Amino acid sequence: MPPDQGSPTPRRGSDPAPRPGDDSAPRRGEANARRVEALAAAARRRRRLQTLLPWIIIAATFLLWEVLVRGLQIDAFILPAPSAIAASMIQWWEPLLSNAWQTLMTTLVGFGLAIVFGLALGVAIGSSTLLYHGLYPLLIGFNSVPKVAVVPILVIWFGIGTVPAIITAFLISFFPIVVNVATGIATVEPELRDVLRALGARPVDIIRKVGLPRAMPYFFASLKIAITVAFVGSILAETVGSNSGIGQLMLSASSRFDVPLVFAGLMVTAVMGVVMYAVAVAIEERTTGWATRGQAEQNVTSLPGG
Amino acid sequence: MATKERPFVEIDGVSMQYGGVEGTLALRDATLNVARGEFVVVVGPSGCGKSTLMKLVSGLWPSSAGSVIVGGQEVDRPLSVVGMAFQNPTLLPWRNILSNVMLPLEVVEPHRRRLRRERAAYEDKAHRLLAMVGLAGFEKRFPYQLSGGMQQRASLCRALVHDPELLMLDEPFGALDIFTREDLWAQLQEVCLTLKPTVILVTHDLREAVFLADRVLVMSSRPGRILAERTVPFDRPRSLDDTYKQDFQDLVHELRDHINAARKGGEIADAA
Ligand SMILES: Nc1ncnc2c1ncn2[C@@H]1O[C@H](COP(=O)(O)OP(=O)(O)OP(=O)(O)O)[C@@H](O)[C@H]1O
Ligand SMILES: [Mg+2]
């Protein structure tokens, strides 16, 4: 019996080596069944640890923070302890919630616009070398402009309020999407394109059936970056020119030297960022399993060859 | 004008140079005709330009010189009457096997128009093709879950699914063991006897060539052109037992001598 059959290799990233063929593995007796069972159990343990680990680390961080602040008797004005932040959260939960909602909506609208326009421009740039070379310098220059400098201009144009925040969130999250989608489409293997070309497919068909699906892993990778920077954009704009939102709340809290409330705002922002990131990851896993070759489920299920 | 038995594929003095004037000359002055319904097999040493020839005929590349005419029409872009199986399986990694096989139906008219209404019938057809090449039950798998040979068989199904008039097969059985391969020869012969497509097939296996072909063409080494041509006289359907008969073996040997000569000739030309 070859010792390498069904050996546990699925952890090796994007290893292109063929997996053990499921169609040719006959039953190999009980010893093998036990080994498969053991492997599956090990994989289950690993996964349990994987889901628990982030929580453990977060809890440990807060604990350490609390201990340090208390032990070194750091002033709440410099660094409030987690317990103080929590107390502030409870005390101010209503404004925190309403402002967080405002920020979330602003961010999501800007992010949504970034997805729509980013996809469109990314597809255009990725499928035309001419557009690519024509537009890239402008895009890069545009992205190099610090967005803090843009917000005052937006406030002059649109007045204090939600619109500058939406636009800033859009501007800051638009670029990674464009670049990634364009890269995904521009790097389509010529062989795959030829499959469709050989059938007499129109360029639109080629983009729809090869370019876009192929760009999806890139697109989702960019979404994970884009959603987090979208928060940066909207909160930035809120601190500069708005009368609502988490950014504005933190600004007014710090002007009242209410540092625990500032930190409470930061916490809320971080939570929103993490949640939106997790949403992006969940969508990514469901739609582009082919790109990771189903590693997630491969770990446990495909060993017995069912 | 088509009544005067004009060849279906006319390749006339075609040359192909990759990468501009300084590039590799892959084909030089290749000329061949293929009649409608004929099964032509092209053999030749590795790197002699067989795949290049296939890509020129299917319109994927423009030729540097000469003309390619398919069905009376100059090939200046890919034609949808062609079904092509590439040397590498080139399945789309994000589609499962079934929808990979059905891809041509989403592109080529009139299937494209009918696909939505007659989905079930088309799926049936794809299932039948997959079963024919021994891939029943793998429809929902993704390409990475299949072996190289299985992927190659799936890509053969993809080339057949839209009933192309011209079938271009570039080493379709290259990654298969001899038994599966012989199985598929018989299957392919059957398909061709019922549907009567025009076929151009590239292979390195001379038994395969003689078993399948109406006519075998031998190419010189790079830059490729047609060196020799042999009509295969045996009646169809041919059986695998026929491949061990004397006259069959004689033909195989004759072709082998041609290829050997081609390889030697090529080395001399390259050195010059
Ligand atoms: N895209 C390309 N760019 C540059 N040169 C190429 C390209 N494709 C093929 N060639 C060259 O053209 C020549 C013929 O290649 P081709 O793929 O047609 O050979 P082949 O007869 O199919 O060989 P094999 O039997 O090994 O598949 C080779 O010398 C190769 O280096
Ligand atoms: Mg080849």
TrEMBL record, chain A:
Stated name of the protein? ABC transporter permease
Q: Does the keyword Nucleotide-binding apply?
A: no
From the Swiss-Prot or TrEMBL record, state where the protein is found. Answer: Cell membrane
User: Taxonomically, which superkingdom?
Assistant: Bacteria
Look up and give the organism this protein is from.
Teichococcus vastitatis
Q: How does it sit in the bilayer?
A: Multi-pass membrane protein
Give every ABC transmembrane type-1 domain span.
100-280
A Pfam match: BPD_transp_1
List compositional bias (Basic and acidic residues) regions by residue number: 20-31
Q: Show the InterPro entries listed in the entry.
A: MetI-like, MetI-like_sf
The record's region (Disordered) falls at 1-31
Say which family it is in.
Answer: Belongs to the binding-protein-dependent transport system permease family.
Transport as a keyword of this entry, yes or no, is yes
Q: Which residues cross the membrane?
A: 52-69, 105-126, 138-160, 166-188, 218-241, 261-283
TrEMBL record, chain B:
Supply the Pfam families for this chain: ABC_tran
What SUPFAM superfamilies does the record tag this protein with? P-loop containing nucleoside triphosphate hydrolases
Q: Which Gene Ontology terms cover its molecular function?
A: ATP binding
Organism encoding this protein: Teichococcus vastitatis
Q: Which InterPro entries match?
A: AAA+_ATPase, ABC_transporter-like_ATP-bd, ABC_transporter-like_CS, ABC_transporter_ATP-bind, P-loop_NTPase
The UniProt record lists the ABC transporter domain at: 9-246
What Gene3D superfamilies has UniProt attached to this entry?
A: P-loop containing nucleotide triphosphate hydrolases (3.40.50.300)
Protein name, per record: ABC transporter ATP-binding protein
Family according to the record: Belongs to the ABC transporter superfamily.
- Alphabetically list the UniProt keywords: ATP-binding, Nucleotide-binding, Transport
The signal peptide annotation in the UniProt record is: none
